[in-house]
Amino acid sequence: MPVTTRQQGFTLLELVIAMAIFAVLGLASWRLFDGVVRAERSGANHEQYMRTLLRAVAVIERDVLQVTVHPLVLEQGVLQLQRGNWRNPLDQPRSELQNVTYRLDQGTLWRESLGVEHPVAQRQKLLDDVLELRWRLYDGKLGWRSDWPAAAGQPVDRPQALELTFSTARFEQIRRVLLLPGSAS
């Protein structure tokens, strides 16, 4: 009578197939994990850049909302203004005045401020990788102007709005129009 033996274990072919399946699953899992990590890094970098961009625009907006009655000067892409600080509940100015200048220097947008009563100069880097920067002021009679004040001899009203347009390495064009204090809504 023939004796039948039962197989105890795996054949070499079964082991090779199992190892190949686990290797493919491991490689697919690693690729998926690597993709998730790269997307997370990219998202974090984009979020940081957006925060920097929003902070820069908020600083400019804060200065524009606090601009004083002294004239604004805009020439060759450099904006100069004088700002006070927050107004009190009776709408009276308070705190010290500052002369503020915005300029683009080798792809970096700078804010330079100098106190009028206490001359302490400060230079603040607002934004890197700026490819182009344009400022314009709006007057109801003259329209949008890239230089301010207008040519000598022309009566000049206080500008009503400020337009900021800039391009960065990540964004083709960003445009922000800010109403100046005292302008008609």
Descriptive overview:
The protein has 185 residues and is an alpha+beta fold. It is built from 1 helix and 9 strands. The strands form 2 sheets. A 5-stranded antiparallel sheet has the order 1-2-3-4-5, with helices on one face. A hairpin with a 3-residue loop joins β6 and β7. The longest helix is centred in the N-terminal third of the chain and has 54 residues, at 12-65.
Topology at a glance:
Layout: H1 12-65, E1 73-75, E2 78-83, E3 98-105, E4 108-115, E5 121-127, E6 130-139, E7 143-145, E8 161-168, E9 174-179
Antiparallel strand pairs: 1-2, 2-3, 3-4, 4-5, 6-7, 6-8, 8-9
Keywords: Cell inner membrane, Cell membrane, Membrane, Methylation, Transmembrane, Transmembrane helix
Organism: Pseudomonas kielensis
Subcellular location: Cell inner membrane
